[in-house]
Each structure stands twice: as C-alpha cells, then as structure tokens.
Known about the structure:
CATH topology of the largest domain: Rossmann fold
Radius of gyration: 19 Å
Number of domains: 2
Structural class: alpha/beta
Low-confidence stretches: none
CATH class of the largest domain: Alpha Beta
CATH superfamily of the largest domain: P-loop containing nucleotide triphosphate hydrolases
CATH architecture of the largest domain: 3-Layer(aba) Sandwich
Strand order of the largest sheet: 3-4-5-2-6-1-9-10
Amino acid sequence: MSKKLPKIVVILGPTASGKTALAIKLAKEFNGEIISADSRQIYKKMDIGTAKPKGVWEKTVGSEAYMVDGVPHYLMDIVDPGKNFTLSDFKSRAVEKINDIIARGKVPFLVGGTGLYIWSVIDNLDMPKVEPNKKLRKELEKKTLPELVALLKQLDSENWSKIDLNNPRRVIRALEVSIWTGESFLKHKTKSRPIVKALQIGISWPREELYERINKRIDNQIKEGLVEETKKLVRQKYSRNMPSMSSIGYKQIGGYLRGETSLEEAVEMIKRDSRHYAKRQITWFKRDKRIKWIASNDFSEAHKLIKKFLL
C-alpha cells in the first residue's frame, strides 16, 4: 500500500489580490499555520515596499514565529537584505516547516505569489546542478536589467518569461544555466516523487479591479513611508545591485533618491511595473491546470474546497 502524502493548502494569486487576508481567515477556520511563499517578504527591514503584514515575533512550540493577527507565519521577515537566499534555501526550509506543522496536528498553508517557490514544494523540484560561474557572473553584472532580459529572451525564447524578470539575480542565474548548458533554465529543474498532496486555490480579479487595487496599495505605501524606508536601507549601505534593493518599489524610489526622476514619476513607474508583474504572474499561474480559481476572495468557496480536501 502506498504511503499517504501529507496535505497542504496553497493560496496563490497575483500581487495585491488579497492572499494574506484570505489565508489568515482560512487558517483560523482550519487550525492552520502559514508558510510565506513570497520572495520579497523574506527580507527583514523591508516592510512597506513588500506589503508585509504587520506582525510581531513570538516564541512558539520549539521555535519562533512571525505572528499576524494570532496566526503564525514562517519564512517571513527572516533574511538580512544583504544576504543571498536561493530557491533551494526556500524549499528546504519550507519542507522542514511543513513537517513540523503537520507533526503538531495543524494544517500547513503555503501562501504567496512566487510561483517557483510554490512549485518547488508541491512538485518537489530538484534545483539545477550547474555550479555558479563567477567570471561569467561578473560579465553579466555589468549589463543593465533590460539588456539581461533581452539576452535571456534570445537564448531561451520558450521559457524566458517564466523567470522573475524584475530580479536581476534570477535573470543572471537563468542566463548562466542557458549559456553553460545550451538549454533552458527550467529544463534543469526536474520533478522528483511528490512529497505533499496540495490543494491550490487561486484568487482571480477582473483585470481593471486588480490594477485599481495595485494603484491604491502603492499610494498607501507612499503615505506609510516607503521613501523613508528606502532612505534608511540606503544609509545602511544596502546597494541598488542587491536582489532585495532591485525589487519593485525600492528600485524606483532609489532612482528618485539619486535625483534620476521626480517622486511622481517614480510612483507611476512602481504602479506600471507592478501591473506588468501581476500580468506575468497571472500568465504563469494560468498554465497550471491544477489550480482551483475563486472569484475576488470568495471565502465561502475557498472554505468549501478546503473542507472537502481535508476530509
């Protein structure tokens, strides 16, 4: 008889779709704890620009958790902005935390919009075995992000858009694998036997409503102090070349602080780039036919799906 796989619930969707609020509500209903699958909210000191929910660190059974509205969150607010955090790092920590949550009789909720983070767990992806090439990386780091993206598109016309194109480190890694092997970065991510059984619930909004939510969120981030948060990070010597500081929001405000644009222009660029990112996320997720889509944070539909899944 085959072994029963542990069950996890995944709440996913594009930026500003309301994943956190829905996941917290559902986690309370189903005795759940949340593992963040957001490649930006992993960073400490970066709260406003990553839309990190307000929380406090508390000691829990055997570890510490970032508590948001009474629900433990893991893999959130854990990495210094100057440190490297790989997909492999995420996967190993997420799997460890899933096992811990299940061992305590609770339900793991994997929540976020970083597709590769989610799929590394539910498809048990093996990471590319190609070793980093320091000489090649130094050459690639001299290029601008648009130049890197154009090169990736040329080398990997089939899969280039599946990479997080706002993250220079990820684009450089994809180029490194493509140049070194002559094959797509994604071809080197192989699936092993599944280690979890996952219910994926996706949050869907009409495009214009989602864009309006994105615009409002960014206006609120400016009011809450995104400029000051970015200034503080710059003062602490986190450079614009770091993956953390080259992400949407910090990158554009960094340009404003260096006098390259006005604040109004920077804000418009953040809105534009966030909308483009959301569009790419939707394209990514729509390829996965296992995802059950719910309309605009339909709590009752999500509740029904989870209840049936956990039986």
